[in-house]
Amino acid sequence: DAKTTQPPSMDCAEGRAANLPCNHSTISGNEYVYWYRQIHSQGPQYIIHGLKNNETNEMASLIITEDRKSSTLILPHATLRDTAVYYCIVRVPPVYNFNKFYFGSGTKLNVKP
Amino acid sequence: SQTIHQWPATLVQPVGSPLSLECTVEGTSNPNLYWYRQAAGRGLQLLFYSVGIGQISSEVPQNLSASRPQDRQFILSSKKLLLSDSGFYLCAWSVPIRAGDEQFFGPGTRLTVL
Q1: CB of A32 within 8 Å of any CB in chain B?
Q2: Residue B36 to chain A, least CA–CA distance (Å)
Q3: DSSP code of A42?
Q4: Per-residue pLDDT tens for A33-47?
């Protein structure tokens, strides 16, 4: 029961920034936004997560709108190895310290030379 | 450091045959454990999760079952496979005391039911 909407696919030129959008208009005030990616035939890999403020790590930046109804994952300098399916997930508030993630269909990012 | 193992990596089974997929985690104690399934071209579907030995919760009714006989071992089973059980099965773990943390996924098992 995914609570997010993402475009099915996007193209990006190698070396340019990749901006992946995600809509989560029904998000609750205590729900986090997580991003994972899945390279073909591998397990998903955690990228970043946030609640209200913008976040940045060594992999990417996460920009969350002020109303929290949408967010954008930014890969600042996309490489061919960033070609993958990117999942935006709203985390159901944990029960007894237990996380449950509901993955949607994601966005297939194609990084082209 | 923590690692997660799954085996087998690939499996081809006839309809009606039994199934047993195994997942083990190293380097951590009392992890939360999860089984997901990914059908071809689709997103991940959470099947089962466990917060401790013998404690299994099912997300969706299905032909599969899960067990956790040891702290860091999670097993996915079926008595009789269906064609619809084909897919990519992923095991994951997370740290239970830090609810905001991410899940770490294993390499997966690709199951084809013929």
Answers
A1: yes
A2: 10
A3: S
A4: 999 999 988 889 999
